[in-house]
Q: What sequence folds into this?
């Protein structure tokens, strides 16, 4: 009896070169290959947004749907953290978040940033006031204010962006959870920056703002640009990207002015 065995090396190498999924989550790599083969048209062009949607389980009102976004491995979170602060030619959503983004990383990035602002903001106030000569007291309002601001940025801004893409009938309509994941990871760069803001030097704090916004803002812009680049109104396309970067800058500016510079008054 003749047994012919099929060689799967070409299939595996194709999936690895696609770069559509950073990190490993058990056997979910199979989902990338099956999604691409089932969704790709005859011309070979594959829409990543369709693959992202087709590989997600359950519906919005099921526990299973949300559970999958917290099933993530450490190496994948680290890869997404690093690539959120280091701009490359790759698209962050398509190459590092799809087909399954996670909410575990963005949640802990946001929580860590909230407490970093509370701790380092109070520490900066203590240093600048020379210990307040025994009269210093911690300002816990920083935690509540920072949590409100970060929640609005990570939840509301992606919602507005998703609404814009839907309204403009974007050819690449990223799911809302992808945008939340993108914005959540984009905050990672501000965690070390809040520590460096302890140094009370005006130009140094401004340099940190431009550096952090330049790095993570570039990642945001490159991730969103493919969704708006084919808009018939180029003013909308460029205006969207400019607004994304400006809002990112205003967030960093608010951190500096409200939580660190306001203690001078």
A:
């Amino acid at each position: 009896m003749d047994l012919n065995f099929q060689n799967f090396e070409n299939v595996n190498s194709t999936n690895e070169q696609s770069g559509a999924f950073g990190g490993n989550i058990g056997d979910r790599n199979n989902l990338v290959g099956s999604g691409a083969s089932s969704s790709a048209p005859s011309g070979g062009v594959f829409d990543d947004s369709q693959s992202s949607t087709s590989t997600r389980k359950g519906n919005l009102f099921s526990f299973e749907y949300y559970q999958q976004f917290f099933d993530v491995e450490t190496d994948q979170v680290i890869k997404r953290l690093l690539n959120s602060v280091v701009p490359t030619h790759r698209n962050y959503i398509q190459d590092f978040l799809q087909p399954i983004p996670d909410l575990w990383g963005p949640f802990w990035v946001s929580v860590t940033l909230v407490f970093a602002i509370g701790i380092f903001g109070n520490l900066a106030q203590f240093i600048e006031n020379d210990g307040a000569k025994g009269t210093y007291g911690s300002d816990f309002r920083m935690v509540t204010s920072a949590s409100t601001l970060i929640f609005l940025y990570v939840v509301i801004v992606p919602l507005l962006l998703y609404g814009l893409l839907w309204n403009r009938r974007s050819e690449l309509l990223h799911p809302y959870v992808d945008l939340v994941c993108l914005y959540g990871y984009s905050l990672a760069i501000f965690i070390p920056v809040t520590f460096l803001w302890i140094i009370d030097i005006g130009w140094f704090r401004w340099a940190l703002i431009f550096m952090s916004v330049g790095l993570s803002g570039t990642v945001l812009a490159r991730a969103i640009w493919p969704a708006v680049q084919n808009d018939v109104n180029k003013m909308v396309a460029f205006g969207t990207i400019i607004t994304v970067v400006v809002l990112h800058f205003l967030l960093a500016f608010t951190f500096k002015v409200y939580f660190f510079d306001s203690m001078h008054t």
The chain is about 65% helix and 0% strand. Residues 8-54 have pLDDT under 50 and may be disordered. Residues 91 and 222 are 6 Å apart (CA to CA).
